[in-house]
Amino acid sequence: MNQTKRLQRIGVLTGGGDCPGLNAVIRAVAKTAIYQHGLEVWGIEDGFLGLIRNRMRPLEAKDVSNILTQGGTILGTSNKANPAHFATGTAPDGSPVFEDVTSRVTEHIRERGLDAIICIGGDGTMTGAADLAKRGVRCVGVPKTIDNDLMGTEITFGFQTAVNTATEALDRVHTTASSHHRVMLVEIMGRNAGWLTLHSGLASGADVVLIPEIPYKPEVVCEACVQRSKRGKAFTIIAVSEGAKPEGGQQVIDRVIKDSPDPIRLGGISQVLCTQISERTGLECRATILGHVQRGGTPVPQDRVLGTLFGHKALDLALAGRFNELVVVQKAEITSVSIESAAGKQRLVPVDHPLIAAARGVGTTFGDEK
Ligand code: F6P
Q1: Ligand 1: does its nearest atom lie under 6 Å from the Cβ of 295?
Q2: How far is ligand 1, taken at its centre, from the CA of residue 128, in Å?
Q3: CB-ligand 1 contact for 77 (6 Å cutoff)
């Protein structure tokens, strides 16, 4: 790709797990490109899969009209399509065979005449974008994920909507826990990062918050439940990250997706703990795994606003010839860092984070100390 060519036609793709606010970014990129700069915009279908299979379509202003409030992504997405490590077949033993199909991708980009690509995604998508950048593809990254774990940015869009959903679920569980005098566990997504659990746990006043960054002691969690019932609080709410693990123990794996570049899917820790607590304390327990409801639905206004700001900034960077940069928020300002610096890394909750201190201050236990 000619590194100095003026932009005429840009592509936009959404990769990795979806999240609320993706359509706000697509809309901001496309409308600004078309209305203000007279550019052509092409929507690449299903993330990098669309580049691998040469599936893309022109986007006109009418195609991105009325999508600001819609969850999901009008372009579709895939979290199995890293061009440098793409499953193209199956070995005799049933395991997937991976190949580097990047040259197929660069050929399709050249054929379609795309001058630059706006890649909206998480760490996996940024790894793919960084690889493409090495082959001369002009990319600008936009960070998304409900997990809020992308390196380099203080916040990703989609996170606030997921916090709302998880908080509402915790609030709902609160009333039934109180009626039935039960210990209720709510399992919250986030992979190896506890941001979603920490924010929603704090917002809903959960009694116990268990996050991957602070391994818990099962006896401390049990004791917290027992002490609450001794104090006359006959119920306990536990917000637990899907990636939480006991001290010296392992995370609970729900499934392994063999043909995915990031094959592990976490899930099930709430059920394990539910059994342990009821066996050890005799208290009645129930577990709820929130799952993908946290990724779906209408984006909250903050995510629509952030998505629009991110889309606008991404186009600005592309127009200024500042490729291979990722739009980020730092010190509450929209700015950018190199895609490479964020690719393949996870931003975890620091154990001295003010939210943890504040939660401890109001009596929340993280299961590590009494
Ligand atoms: O990264 C977003 C996320 O929703 C994680 O919180 C979760 O662990 C994972 O994706 C689930 O992935 P899938 O949609 O493949 O089940």
Answers
A1: yes
A2: 18
A3: no
Q: What is the dihedral of CA 101, 44, 147, 297, to 10 degrees?
A: -140
DSSP structural state of residue 216: B
Number of neighbouring beta carbons within 10 Å of residue 41: 24
Give the residue from 293, 320, 356, 311 showing the smallest Cα distance to 24: 311
Identify the pLDDT of residue 255.
96
Helix axes 301-319, 22-31, angle to 10 degrees: 40
Mutate to test the pocket of ligand 1, among 77, 78, 125, 147 (most ligand atoms within 8 A of CB): 147
The series of mean pLDDT values per 10 residues for the chain, 370 residues long, is 80 97 98 98 98 98 98 96 92 92 96 98 93 95 97 97 98 96 97 98 98 98 94 91 98 93 94 98 97 97 98 97 97 97 94 98 93
Tokens of 127: 């790894």
Global pTM value: 0.96
In the reported structure, the alpha carbon of residue 73 is separated from the centroid of ligand 1 by a whole-number distance in angstroms of 15
For residue 190 and ligand 1, the question of a CB distance below 6 A is answered with yes
Catalytic residues: 147
Joined tokens for residue 254:
């729900």
- For the chain, domains (ranges, CATH) are 9-157+299-342 (3.40.50.450), 159-295 (3.40.50.460)
Rounded Cα gap, residues 85 and 75, in angstroms: 22
Q: Residue 210: in which H helix or E strand, if any? A: strand 208-210
The whole-number pLDDT of residue 3 equals: 64
- Provide the pLDDT for residue 5: 73
